[in-house]
Design brief:
Elements (H helix, E strand, L loop, with lengths): L36 H4 L4 E4 L10 H10 L1 E2 L8 E2 L3 E4 L5 H7 L4 H7 L16 H11 L11 H9 L5 H15 L7 H8 L12 H10 L4 H8 L3 H10 L2
Parallel strand pairs: 1-4
Antiparallel strand pairs: 2-3
Helix pairs in contact: 2-4, 6-8, 7-8, 9-10, 10-11
Length: 242
């Protein structure tokens, strides 16, 4: 969700997320006599992570800021102004929260000027290695394709990651601690995630594969998921039995 664009695109830090709730107010991060995060990034971009967790008592304060750009710094007797682009993210259904009265309808309308919905990792497994590479670059590291086991990537792709990106990042951190980039080896991934699903299920047979493909109308990705293997493993099996 994004508020109407303003005059700059300088990226900034997140005043929400895992910080204590009071830091999500429009004067977030401001002590007496100090500038808050929003004021400090006047002309830039402020990102509110997990906006769905914003307490009801702080929602009208954010709404006031979005409507007129006014901030009330701690200890001030008059408002100040800031000109920023507000970007917000959440993994909750804000529509449902609005219907339940947990999130202000008018605040949601101000935030939802432009929206972008990202599906969970389990619905875009093919993006996983690219995301892993981006995480590595953030740590100042880089994977060497020659040192990356295909099986390691496939093992990651078979995991559902119910906690989405945060879980993927935590898994990659644990893998890197055991076997740091540029390598990404199956042994380290299995140590973190356990044995591959395919090793805990029945082996592939032509009958099982054909049945899965029929049940999924020829969709190889869905058939592979039903069989508990990656799409690459399924394709290699199909090639081996041609």
């Amino acid at each position: 969700m994004e508020s109407p664009p303003r005059r700059s695109r300088d990226e900034t830090r997140d005043p929400g997320g895992a910080e204590p709730a009071p830091r999500r107010a429009p004067n977030v991060g401001a002590g007496k006599g100090a500038r808050g995060i929003i004021a400090a990034h006047d002309g830039g971009v402020v990102f509110f992570d997990e906006i769905g967790e914003l307490p009801p008592e702080l929602q009208p304060k954010l709404l006031r800021f979005l409507e007129n750009g006014e901030l009330f710094p701690v200890g001030a007797d008059r408002p100040s102004r800031a000109d920023v682009v507000v970007v917000a993210a959440t993994n909750r259904s804000v529509d449902r929260m609005v219907a339940e009265g947990a999130f202000r309808r008018d605040l949601y309308a101000r935030l939802a000027v432009a929206t972008l919905e990202l599906p969970p990792l389990r619905e875009r497994r093919e993006d996983l290695f690219a995301i892993a590479c981006a995480f590595a670059l953030r740590r100042g590291e880089k994977y060497d394709v020659a040192a990356v086991d295909v099986e390691a990537v496939e093992r990651l792709m078979l995991h559902d990651f119910p906690n989405n990106m945060r879980e993927l990042y935590a898994v990659l951190e644990r893998v890197a601690a055991a076997d740091p980039p540029p390598a990404l080896r199956m042994a380290a991934v299995s140590r973190v995630l356990g044995a591959p699903v395919s090793q805990r299920r029945e082996p592939l047979t032509r009958e099982r594969v054909d049945a899965a493909l029929r049940a999924n109308h020829g969709n190889q990705s869905q058939a592979a998921r039903e069989l508990g293997v990656s799409r690459g493993q399924l394709l290699r099996y199909l090639k081996s039995v041609e």
